[in-house]
Amino acid sequence: GPGQAAMYAGLQELGVANGEDLKETLTNCTEPLKAIEQFQTENGVLLPSLQSALPFLDLHGTPRLEFHQSVFDELREKLLERVSAIALEGKLEERYKKLEDLLEKSFSLVKMPSIQPVVMCVMKHLPKVPEKKLKLVMADKDLYKACAVEVKRQIWQDNQALFGDEVSPLLKQYILEKENILFSNDISVLHNFFSPSPKTRRQGEVVQKLTQMIGKNVKLYDMVLQFLRTLFLRTRNVHYCTLRAELLMSLHDLEVNEICNVDPCHKFTWCLDACIREKFVDNKRARELQGFLDGVKKGQEQVLGDLSMILCDPFAINTLALSTIRHLQDLVGQDTLPRESPDLLLLLRMLSLGQGAWDMIDSQVFKEPKMEAELITKFLPMLMSFVVDDHTFNVDQKLPSEEKGPIPYPSTIPEAYTKFLQENRIACEIGLYYILHITKQRNKNAFLRLLPALVETFSDLAFGDIFLHLLTGNLTLLGDEFALEEFCTSLFDGFFLTACSRKENVHRHVLRLLLHLHHKVAPAKLESLQKALEPTKQSGEAVKELYNQLTEKLELRKPSPAEVTETPSMELPLPTVPTPASR
Question: Model-level pTM?
Answer without folding.
Answer: 0.82
